[in-house]
Design brief:
about 240 residues; alpha/beta; D-Maltodextrin-Binding Protein, domain 2; 7-stranded mixed β-sheet; two-stranded parallel sheet; 10 helices
Amino acid sequence: MAQHITRLANESRRRMRDGMQERAKAITFACLGTLAAAYVPHWLHRLGEEFDETTYRVLTSFGSAEAYWTSLETGSCDFLICYKDDGDAIDIDHDAFPSLFLDSEVMLPVVSEQFMADEAHENIISKLNPVPYLAYSAHTYLGRIVSDHIRRQYQEVTFDKIYESTLATSLKEMALLGYGVGWLPLSGISENLVDRSLVRAAPAESDIEISIRIFRHARTLGPAAESFWSSLQCK
């Protein structure tokens, strides 16, 4: 019996030690679903072999914009990767949450080619009132950014929300099916613009320029996360 208890205790200590070592090598990102699917894998690949021994965890199920920041503040993740617009649709305490620039992105208002042909206008948004609108959910990052843009640029236009989703890919499919206008990331529709399955719904002045940034909390992080951050600062 004593030998059995000793063996169980040793096994428990070994599992605890292995778990602590695994967590020490792990870096956890909170990330918007659109970025997790289309951007983060390629970004990590471009970082090269420097962090081959690191385990990456990417979490996307926080829901609202506030919940993502809460996860960073409470330590549920090491870093937050998200969009940032110049209009500050999301209010951020930059002292508490320093960040680094990763990449640029542009949101374009688009419709299907058939929708544009049916309406026979080059600038759908200026010709239709109300505008059939494919919207991001109001609590999401892109929802805040696009809504803020529309509020500032289209004060005299009514946008009739006919479809809403948290996912850019879902809005893209609805746009391709001809249901209305949606602002979509250029990186996700470049091929559609080439084959003209999607076309601009308004001139370039209606585009939304945003950046992709990585945020952290100002407090000291774990060794792997601090090393990762230092490496990003040097790139």
